[in-house]
Amino acid sequence: MKKKYLLSLLMFIPILVFSQNNGKIAGKVVDNSKLPLIGANIIVLNTTNGAATDEDGSFEISITPGTYSVRAQFVGFSSQTIENVVVEAGKTTVIEFNLEMEALAAQEIVVIGYGVQKKTEVTGAVTSISPADVQKIPTTQIAEAIQGAAPGVNVSFGSGAPGSTPNIKIRGAGSLENNDPLYIIDGVPADIQYVNPADIEAIDILKDASSAAIYGSRAANGVILVTTKRGKPGDLKINYSTYLNSQSPDADFPFITNSRDYTNVAKQAMDNVGQDYLQFITDYEANPSAFSNSDWQNAYFRDAVEQKHDLSISGGTKDFNFSVSGLYANQKGTIINTDNERMSLRINSDFKKGRLKIGESFSVGKSKGTSRWNYTFNFFHLARMSPLTPIWDNTPSGYGTQWDISGLALEGNPILQNEINELTWDDVNILASGYLEYDILDDLKYTFRVSQNIDNKYEFNYFPEYFTSDADNNPTTNMDETRERQYHTIIETFANYNKAFGKHSFTLMGGYSQEKIDNRETFASVKGFPSTELRVLGAGEEGDNAGGDAWEWRQRSFFGRITYAFDDKYLVTANIRRDGSSRFDSENRWGTFPSFSLGWRLSKESFFEGIDFITDLKIRGGYGELGMQEFDDYAYIAKIIKDWNSRLNYPFGEGRDQGIIVGARALSFPSVGIQWETSKETNVGFDMALFGNRMTLTADYYQRESEGILYAAPIPLSSGSYSPPVVNSASIENNGLELGIGYRNYDNEFKYDINASISTYSNEVTKLGQGNEEAVWGGEIHWSMDLTTKTEVGQPIGSFFLYRTDGIFKSQAEIDAYTKDGNLIMPDAQPGDLKYVDVNGDGRISGDDKEFMGSGAPDAEFGVNFSARYKSFDISLNIYAVTGKQMINGARWLTMRLDKFAGMHEDLLDAWTPQNADSNIPRVLYADDRNAQASDYWLEDADYLRIRHIEIGYTFPKGILNALGVGNLRIYVAADNLITITGYDGYDPGIDYGSLFDRGADRSPYPVPKQFLTGIQLGL
Predict the structure, then answer these.
(1) Cα–Cα distance between 449 and 491 in angstroms, integer?
(2) Residue 105: per-residue pLDDT
(3) Whole-model pTM?
């Protein structure tokens, strides 16, 4: 035992001696007002030593004796290097850095696709988003965090369900089908939903065609480039953060929940159409206590909790760096039996040896959850339930039932459907990419990159046997499974040549890319199980329904770019890309997409001298063309499907020996001669820095024409095909103005940043179909009925097309006075009915009187981000607003039209009656839709202002941190979606889901919840 202690002591002596022989470099980092800079990076050049400053701006580095060069860096400030810092054994050398603030945009480096560029040299419409702004919003989705952070970038929510991904549109809708931008993660096209916001190093958005054309056919809707964190030279860094999120449903739709009020409205509706009372009314009058006062909404929603944990480890030397990060998040939904669990791991590393540099990015993400029953129309089923029906009762299933024999709407219990059915999904995404860079010459760099993106999706649906009533049951347990696997492989090779001489500087880039996608899907379903515990396909006793499909896509591309600058003030950029896609036939497979842009830095001119308040001013303009190929593969080939239902089988032969040949039908017609959809865009703008580099101002105006839009124009069913062919059938024009402004002040102890963005947007269809006479209808509210939008030439996509109303007829005299040439315009109307306007003046109300009334796309969007710090306290605020947006309040419409007695809106309690003649609520009518037509009565202004996020934090001082043995510790409280100011009466004015033709038609999907959070951020 003594020998072991002696051996341990001997092993420890060299460490003690080494520590005693070390010296220290200590000091502070301050700005030009002598205020400390927290979190500045200190690097001892040509070593692995480094540190970060604390809340006092102080740092300390232990290092072997010698003479060193020490550099300090901080975002937004010029770096400073102190040479010849002498360190002696056992002594501390004290130094101080004084960093000068830079212009907010002056020295930033932005990613532009296959390279980087100084912000001052960028001539296209490129917006960079600070990772700090993204990471302020507690979420697992990057898309959610950037709402309102960049002008011209619209982020909307199709659902508040756990795991749902927000929709992003850059500069509006430029096509009729896919309007999603291209996402590039560390140089590789990938799905943004699997990237943890905590891993973000930079986000750059290429908005116009002149900047995005380098990505060719994939970039017609803009490009979002995401760079994830990589290790940096210095000490090992360990960071951990977590938050707990309490969510409350923002669901307060005014249903009638009192059975007496409900029955009174039903009686009034029957009286107004002269019909006898239905059975449920007479039964209720005979025995009210036998009926419930069910609040279905309260039972359907719940308070829920979310937790998220992030852990990262990073470090490096001058030749090697690494970063490893992990995420775990678990979110319960605010609708019963909905949840989402997410896990991810990311590993980035780089190694440099001489002129060679190699690196990799590897990530794996897993997301699994439980979906609610009938994902799309959840409110429809909720609104079909009457308060008279019990939610739970003594039926064999234990749930209440509603059936139409009594006159109530026939509908299955939505609480039962959500609680007993198992609808789950499980997605796994693996993205692996590697690169090799070699400096052939000092000015010439070659890059080779390969990536593999593997996406595995799995869905499992299990519907157990149950019995509530003859009208609400599932007599046989059934189950189905779907598996889909996709491989996306990309190989890219390119070279960059940079040269500067005299007042000239230029770069040349050229490269080649090829990519392919292989996709395979299988599904199977069975029914009848001997036990609820045996939930596998092999245990099914009935059914043998299986199927699947496979498809592949290939693309090859050549691309190049040249940039030129003279005297750092005259700037030129030109791009070209040529893409060949397997989605087109051989004659139209290739498309060429060029772009160019110019810039002029006026602030560098001699005539600008003396204008001290403007630090930098650049005007720029550009033009580019982009392609689009977002439609199904093999569209140029006719698809034939066998009819296994025997409806098209045909007998051959004679008598009893004749054979039966399985028939077939056309699934779709071939899309003959289709060509690349082309987007042509012009952009002009300027970038400015003012007031001693404290303020930035950026403005852009763009005009985009999308021609030959690929769209499956509707065809008559008599053609024999269900699916219409894709053709180059439409053209669209977009234009808008974008303004971004930022200001920061770090001169005093109270430091703050404020950034604001404003975007306007307009859209017009200039061609639709071969003869410009076709129109596309959409915006359905009541399943496939009640179409509220119409897309035609001369109007925006998805414009509301409705009857105009002029209040309510308060008396018979008003009806009699509403005439044309002495004839009643609405002869069937009665007092209390809506008055529809005879728009075309033909003396009657018909479909010809409908007119266009705005759309669900806002005219303008506003975003404000504010952050401030005072001593150890910090606060941040994010506000988002839209104006000019219209929405059809489908929930109100569904609950005020009494085609069946189901859920009722509280407004019906104030409906027009002779005794309540001043009401603006039309009289209630049973099974009579005269007051429930697609009219502006259901159309509402959906402008809103929302406090997206507010947060208050506290960073512990150095003395406490030293006692705890940690480098940094911050705690915070926050709230999301705290306040929404709007005149809209639906669940959420920010909801935008479905196709462009449905935009603004609110069927009340999963509402976005309010959230209250507490969190911790820890650094070691």
Answers:
(1) 6
(2) 38
(3) 0.84
